[in-house]
UniProtKB/TrEMBL annotation:
Similarity comment: Belongs to the EamA transporter family.
Keyword GTP-binding carried by entry: no
Membrane topology qualifier: Multi-pass membrane protein
Keywords per UniProt: Cell membrane, Membrane, Transmembrane, Transmembrane helix
Subcellular location: Cell membrane
Protein name (Swiss-Prot/TrEMBL): Threonine/homoserine exporter RhtA
EamA domain boundaries: 166-297
Membrane-crossing residue ranges in chain numbering: 56-78, 90-108, 114-134, 141-158, 164-184, 196-214, 226-244, 256-276, 282-299
Organism from which the protein derives: Nonomuraea coxensis DSM 45129
Amino acid sequence: MTAFALDDSFERGPGLPRPGSVLRAAADSIPPSSLVVLAIFSVQLGAGLAKELFAVLPPSAVVFVRIAAGALIMGAFVRPRLKGLSWRDWAVGVGFGLTLALMNLSFYEALARLPMGIAVAIEFLGPLGVAVAASRRRIDLLWVALAGTGVALLAPWGDPAAASWLGIGFALVAGACWAGYILLSAAAGRRFPGTSGLAFAMMVSAVVIAPVGVTTGGADLLRPELLLIGVGVGLLSSVIPYSLELQALRRMPPRVFGILMSLEPAVAALIGVLLLSEILHAQHWVAIVCVVAASLGSTRRGKA
């Protein structure tokens, strides 16, 4: 069942199929690996559109529009219950939301200073670190070294104009938050039914980021064309990929899912070239390949 199935409770004519059943049947007809690839492209296309908005809105304002749009859509479909939650449930949910807000804000700040492929490759160290930390195999030291080599190649040692140290710092913070997001997502899954934990976290995130986003965005946030693009970014970056990933995970082992997700830095670099005309140097492509290979290696032999 997808995360956002349409409500089947309205009246239908005789013999008409339920809309939710139609959507589920359509999703089931697509191979799960294709759903994951579509989710990856959706996320990175959303990031590319967000970066286009940086010409008229600061990253913090774009983050606010994206998270607010995602929270409204998820809240309308999921409607998480707040009554009866223990203080531990609130702590996990609020912590999840704060981590989500900081992760998105730091990533967008990195995206404003770095090419997409570089920003995503560095941020990907977060989930890679979680995978390696959960393992006790000596070969994982090889993947750590490979990932470290990739980051070293991305750093602007000899050419300060090639990348931004501040951007790299923001990407590292985003990666650390991504690691926290993974752990808190698991904790929320144990305390909240279905996708209500993520919906709750997105609402908290929208409230937290609102003061910064509204202050920096100002009156430009009321421009219909910018709001429309922002809603599109929210759909592409949050709602659509999460729905696709959830559907894919119903039909494939988590290990295979992790292997496919390792392609994300390469897809980000490709979207950056095609959508934003971000031409990367050869050493940057080598660095991205190092990070992807490290992620593949750590996931391929890891436990589900």
